[in-house]
Write a structure and sequence with these properties.
Length: about 325
């Protein structure tokens, strides 16, 4: 296996063959800035000072034209072809508590949650070590690039990795998962990744906001909070935003937690109401505002969903209510 040295001020590391610059850094325990690991957010930009890379996605959405003029690159989309010297501002907040690694996992079973949202349950031969709210990269046969999906369960010794995935019309990856992958087949899983994990040392009440397949990491946060005993003394408010009533989900899953209806509260809203719908209508951040309002500053806030939703929530929390940035946790996906 070919390895390349990457020279980074104060943090040199070896890069294994097949890994991107970002993957190599995180496996080495380096606090390289990142969020989505798939080229969309732009958090892992770096400057290449010396050496040669293979750019997997030159047109990645995470790079602006200004970035390209300044010869910036995305660490999640670059594989080294030689020894590299790079420049990036690292931070201890990006250091992984559990170093990501590759492993083979076997599909155990699937279960439909809604008409287009399905849970996929995989098992590895080793313990499934991850923090509630993190994600993994799935290498799906026939799909060129790995896809990032969040785990919906909590870390466990049985080696189970559960993912709640929404089928994307004409999506190559979800097409393979939903229609071709069968129980007993294996794929490669790389993880864990992600910084929007449960802070189980924090005594504040919790807000979880999910939209679409953002359900998975928020379910994991709720399960993790229950498992850690946080919900014996803390409140958790779980919000789910959907397009139509048939897209609403999550409440039935949360019913299995003993704190449901006591310290765990579920709210749902749709953006497109139907005649038979008598629930909340509008956008999910508006429902969060109506329910919690100025009390948001006293909460630890987690959210996952489509970019417009996460953008609206971030602006509302920080600009409208002044929630400190360190109390806001989300990974951007595109």
């Amino acid at each position: 296996m070919t390895e390349h040295q990457i020279l980074l001020e104060g943090s040199d590391y070896l890069q294994a063959s097949g890994d991107t610059v970002l993957q190599g850094a995180l496996r080495a325990g380096i606090g390289f800035p990142y969020e989505c690991s798939s080229g969309g957010c732009g958090s892992c930009k770096f400057e290449l000072l010396e050496g040669e890379v293979e750019n997997l996605w030159p047109e990645a959405a995470g790079l602006t034209e200004r970035d390209r003029r300044k010869h910036k690159l995305l660490a999640c989309q670059c594989r080294p072809k030689s020894t590299l010297k790079i420049k990036v501002r690292t931070g201890s907040e990006y250091q992984s508590q559990l170093l990501p690694r590759r492993r083979r996992v076997t599909l155990l079973e699937t279960q439909d949650i809604t008409h287009d949202l399905r849970e996929f349950r995989f098992r590895s031969d080793d313990p499934a070590e991850f923090q509630s709210g993190q994600y993994a990269l799935l290498h799906i046969p026939g799909v060129a690039a790995p896809r990032a999906y969040s785990m919906s369960n909590t870390g466990n010794a049985a080696g189970e990795w559960h993912f709640q995935i929404r089928q994307i019309q004409s999506g190559k990856a979800t097409g393979k998962l939903f229609h071709e992958l069968i129980a007993g087949e294996q794929i490669e899983l790389d993880g864990p990744y992600g910084m929007a994990y449960l802070r189980n040392h924090v005594a504040r009440d919790i807000v979880c906001v999910a939209g679409g397949s953002g359900l998975a990491p928020m379910i994991a946060i709720a399960r993790g909070a229950s498992q850690a005993g946080l919900l014996k003394t803390q409140q958790l408010h779980f919000f789910y935003g959907a397009r139509t009533p048939r897209d609403i989900c999550g409440e039935q899953i949360l019913q299995s937690l003993p704190e449901m209806g006591v310290n765990l509260h579920y709210y749902s809203i749709v953006s497109q109401a139907e005649a038979a719908w008598n629930g909340e209508t509008g956008f999910v951040h508006e429902l969060v505002r109506r329910v919690l309002g100025s009390n948001l500053t006293r909460h630890e806030c987690y959210f996952a969903g489509p970019p417009p939703m996460t953008q609206a929530l971030q602006e509302m929390l920080m600009l409208e209510y002044g929630v400190p940035f360190e109390q806001i946790h989300f990974d951007r996906y595109f």
